[in-house]
Amino acid sequence: MKHILGLFYCVLYGGCSFCFSLSVKYLWIKFQFRMTFMLLLYENILTALICLFMGKRNHSSKDTLLYSFIYSLQTFSGMKGLQIMNISMYMTLRRTLILFVFMMQKTWKISNFMSVIFITLGAIIAGQEHLDENYFGYGLILMNNLFNALALHKSKQLNYEKQIDPLELLFQNSCNQIPFLFIGAYASQELHDFMTTTYMSEQFLIAFTLVALMGFMLCYSTNLCNMYNSPIAIAITHNIKDILITSYSFFFLKEEYDFQILAGIIISYLGSILYSIQKVKEIKSLYLPLSSNDKDQKQD
After folding, report:
1. Nearest Cα to Cα of residue 231 among 125, 142, 99, 143
2. Whole-angstrom distance, CA of residue 171 vs CA of residue 220
3. CA-to-CA distance for 157 and 164, rounded, in angstroms?
């Protein structure tokens, strides 16, 4: 049952991540909204309020301070990178996340290693011609990958050592971040600029709230997925999601692409398929003997 739940939460995480990335990009394109501190502040306030209605909190915030610091760096670098890069190139470089996650694994299988090689190679092929266009953007995404990998491992550690469940971790993380995000929004004048009539329209507030809600769903599904799966499984799911978003940006957002980007996507996708096949085999090996025993018992 645990493996079935793990697979379900991987799919849930992938879907939430897909919707969140597109909703953020829509907010920036439609309304020219670039206030990262305000968006994160609103998202974390909304997250904390939702968590208050969903369950208990048994740990103090000090248990999650380091995690919150890493998570903040991950989120901020990711959003800043997405602001200044097109979706296809952003997702291309984000696929190297699996390399950072894999390097932090204590043990690994040859099949996982081959998946990492294919996915990373595909990302390099897709992006090598464009690396000289935006050094700052690429640096931000690489930092985002590093902090993301660290956050995944720290989240797993907190769940294992401190028995902090996904909802509790989400609540503590939001409480830790809110004061610093408020200071950042005030110091950067984002709080003042946000109160202007430009951003007080009903259409904007609905879109703004939907992005914040998707942020909550993404964080919660990430924690759930990480509780039942290894960080590398999350990285693989993230890679598949990035490929789908890149394809979506080509067909529906009319972003430019070339043969090299397509070749890189295909190679990365092969790596994801390789891992997925191995994972399905592992689940079958666990559940097929159980079903065989049930049949034998019925025959007896």
Report:
1. 99
2. 10
3. 9
Query: What's the pLDDT score for residue 295?
Result: 47
Contact 235, 98 (CB under 8 A): yes
Residue type at 151 in one-letter notation = A
Q: What is the 3-state composition of the chain as percent helix, strand, coil, each rounded to the nearest 5?
A: 85, 0, 15
At position 107, the amino acid (one-letter code) is T
Please report how many Cα atoms fall inside a 13 Å half-sphere around the Cα of residue 28, on the Cβ side.
Answer: 19
Q: Are 23 and 212 in contact (CB under 8 A)?
A: no
Residue 152 near residue 231 (C-beta atoms within 8 A):
yes
Query: Could you give the CA distance from residue 143 to residue 118 in angstroms, rounded to a whole number?
Result: 21
pLDDT band at 300 (very low <50, low <70, confident <90, very high): very low
pTM above 0.90, yes or no: no
Nearest to 9 by CA among 248, 276, 222, 211: 222
**End-to-end CA distance of the chain, in Å?**
26
What are the structure tokens assigned to 123, written together? 């990302």
pLDDT for 102-140, tens place per residue?
A: 888 767 677 777 888 887 788 777 766 666 567 788 888
Side-chain-facing half-sphere of 77: CA atoms under 13 Å: 20
Per-residue pLDDT tens over the stretch 217-235? 999 998 888 888 777 777 7
pLDDT at residue number 114: 81
